[in-house]
Design goal:
Jelly Rolls; single chain; globular; three-stranded antiparallel β-sheet; alpha+beta
Length: 565
């Protein structure tokens, strides 16, 4: 092929893109950068085209080449950061932008991009700062208005509704902005306004599962028995989209409606016979509902072989007391993903059931499960508790969580603007460090102790309020963490009765759907101002209590972003 100039290759690629021929566009751009490898502008144009085509990986590669060729070019650095954030590599995006910070403060594009990357790193205060700078430079910048409105919602700012209205005035057709407005109205107590928007989104965008899920949350909060029926309406409007039925199964199973989820999975198989995903969902939910024979038959005809199937089948084998087969499946997962918390949790259950000595090595040592006094509790908690009750008064029972009754605060508690929560976070961090310092020595083979000396961070944070009369947590794990927690703020009086242990925390009792007669490793008596900390590989739940109220704050400990694995 003749050697065209960089400009000619760019024009050929863009013409192909405009005509809808993505393959020809890609080929022309790749050929162009191959012939002109030192043309930074062409690499940058290629990155932009790949980003528009939805290939963020290729965009990242091409923007990176442009930025490397012209290391002082802020436009190329910003574009590279945009691609990194699109891939979820927000820490790398911030690092890419940091060296241009002084120059970037006068660029709305830079500030908006920096805000997005900081938000992706779970730094909402920094994100808000950069979005505000962007909007000071360019008040109608749509992405900055959108991002700033989301930060306002996530941090519990009083002006969240107004922020979404301002963003919608610039970009009225963005469904996510309408969802954000609905969510902010719900937080503000305007259930009717939130419901109107959510129902409109479900009708106008039936394939958008985020909107469907929010409507289900609103309906659940209102006590509607059939709170997921709109998924059926959405599936009828968009019969070609399997994601609606998949999400429907997820919402049902998340609150133990496993029989109904099984029915949805079976119906989905008739509509999407080539997708083994729904075959597996039938097996998973049938087993969780207690129909082991049906689950066995479905697993037998399921050809899929991957870690997800092995994990679910391992649960089934445990229910059937086939512990050797379960262990083999878990070993297969850990060979592929050595630090899968979900697999290690089930492996621990199997080791206990078979009296394997490795069980004590994994989670039997006393130092791993602790109830510790919160650092500076007397100064911190009296200010935090009233704030939390105020949040709980407007918080719902969440979808897909372990709660059975009660309420859970929205969003990430430690991202909020109230200074009391920042003080609470500091007290928790100090207590977590005390826990870490008392752990057994580093062990490279252990799923928690391998991280004993790594950089830890808090991920997620929320509060749960349970009322007497049967509210409780089902036994569960947090597979994204390495250490899990429960900080007790208020407990019912009856927990003081050690003979009853009502409301106590059970650590190590397997999930109920496994159908095992296996008690907890430890039970911990909740004490106000004390925090339970334990490996995330241990199932945990609470016992119901008859009277009183129990309020906790919880979070996960993870590795700090960018820390060595």
């Amino acid at each position: 092929m003749s050697k065209f100039s960089a400009h000619q290759w760019r024009e050929r690629a863009l013409a192909a893109e405009r005509s809808g021929d993505a393959a020809a566009a890609r080929q022309a751009m790749e050929r162009g950068v191959e012939q002109h490898p030192q043309d930074a502008a062409l690499w940058n144009s290629a990155g932009g085209m790949f980003l528009r085509l939805g290939d963020a990986t290729a965009a990242k590669k091409h923007f990176a080449e442009a930025a490397a060729l012209q290391s002082t070019n802020i436009e190329f650095a910003i574009n590279h950061a945009i691609a990194l954030s699109a891939l979820g590599q927000h820490a790398s995006a911030v690092a890419q932008l940091a060296s241009f910070e002084k120059q970037g403060r006068s660029s709305a594009v830079y500030c908006s991009t920096r805000g997005t990357a900081e938000r992706g790193m779970c730094n909402p205060a920094k994100a808000g700062f950069w979005y505000d700078l962007a909007l000071a430079l360019e008040p109608n910048r749509a992405k900055a208005l959108h991002g700033r409105a989301r930060v306002a919602l996530e941090r519990g700012e009083a002006a969240a509704v107004q922020r979404f209205d301002r963003a919608l005035s610039v970009n009225n057709g963005d469904a996510d902005l309408w969802l954000g407005k609905a969510q902010s109205l719900d937080v503000a107590g305007d259930y009717k306004g939130a419901r109107e928007i959510a129902e409109a989104l479900a009708k106008q965008a039936p394939q958008w599962t985020e909107g469907l899920r929010f409507l289900a949350q609103l309906r659940l909060a209102q006590g509607e028995e059939d709170f997921t029926s709109h998924y059926g309406d959405a599936a009828a409007k968009a019969p070609q989209d399997p994601n609606i039925l998949s999400e429907w199964c997820s919402v049902l199973s998340g609150l133990d409606y496993n029989t109904q989820a099984t029915d949805v999975a079976v119906d989905a198989q008739s509509k999407f016979p080539d997708l083994d995903h729904f075959v597996m969902l039938e097996a998973v939910n049938a087993g969780a509902a207690g129909d082991n024979d049906r689950a066995e038959a479905v697993f037998t005809r399921l050809d899929r072989q991957d870690s997800e199937r092995w994990l679910h089948e391992a649960r089934h084998r445990i229910r059937c007391a086939e512990f050797d087969r379960a262990g083999t499946l878990l070993d297969q997962i850990i060979e592929v993903d050595p630090w899968s918390i979900s697999a290690w949790a089930l492996r621990g259950v199997v080791w206990r059931l078979t009296s394997d000595e490795r069980s004590d090595w994994l989670d039997g040592r006393e130092e791993l499960v602790r109830l510790m006094p919160l650092h500076n509790a007397d100064a911190v908690l009296p200010k935090v508790i009233p704030q939390l009750h105020q949040l709980h008064d407007g918080s719902p029972l969440p979808l897909g969580q372990s709660l059975r009754g009660g309420s859970q605060t929205r969003g990430i508690l430690f991202d909020r603007t109230e200074p009391e929560f920042a003080e609470l976070r500091d007290a928790i961090v100090a207590t977590v460090e005390q826990y870490r310092g008392a752990l057994p020595e580093h062990d490279a083979a252990h799923p928690l102790l391998r991280h004993r000396d790594s950089e830890w961070a808090l991920a997620g944070s929320w509060s749960v309020r349970l009322n007497g009369g049967g509210d409780f947590h089902t036994a569960h794990i947090h597979p994204q963490g390495i250490v899990s927690s429960a900080l007790y703020l208020e407990v019912p009086d009856e927990t003081a009765d050690a003979n009853d242990e009502a409301g106590w925390l059970e650590v190590g009792r397997p999930a109920a759907d496994l159908g095992l007669d296996l008690g907890p490793r430890r039970t911990l008596e909740p004490k106000p101002g004390h925090m339970a900390l334990f490996p995330s590989t241990l199932y945990h739940g609470t016992r119901p209590f008859a009277d009183g109220r129990r309020m906790t704050v919880a979070f996960d400990v993870t590795l700090r972003q960018g820390a060595p694995q």
